[in-house]
Amino acid sequence: MFDIGFGEMVLLAAIALIAIGPKQLPEVARTVGRVLRELKKAMGEVTDTVANAHSVTNNTIQKIQDDVTKSIISAPDAKPVVTATPPSATTTEEKNS
Q1: Is 81 left (phi over 0), alpha (psi -120 to 50) or beta?
Q2: Average pLDDT of span 69-92
Q3: What is the mean pLDDT of the chain?
Q4: Read out DSSP for the chain?
């Protein structure tokens, strides 16, 4: 997890033993273990939530694509919708000249 070797871990344990003391070290280690476990659990929940949202989004997009494809296939003789064309830029420039 932290990419710590055995020698580094022994050095950290020795420093913790000196800094915290032999009586409080087991209690501190349990507390650190609980905190790390809770963080890992919270991270798992966040990962699951993001994965679920991603799945729902993909399903919605797939449904929309299917609906559009069905609409296109079911209307092969449909005529395009004609919309009013905006005036061209050249027409405006000709008026200004």
Answers
A1: beta
A2: 72
A3: 85
A4: -----HHHHHHHHHHHHHHH-TTTHHHHHHHHHHHHHHHHHHHHHHHHHHHHHHHHHHHHHHHHHHHHHHHHHH-TTPPPPP-PPPPPHHHHHHHH-
What span, in angstroms and rounded, lies between the C-alpha atoms of 50 and 25?
37
Structure tokens at 53: 């949202």
Task: Report pLDDT digits (tens) over 41-71.
Answer: 999 999 999 999 999 999 999 999 999 988 8
Report pLDDT digits (tens) over 12-26: 889 988 998 889 989
Q: Are 19 and 27 in contact (CB under 8 A)?
A: no
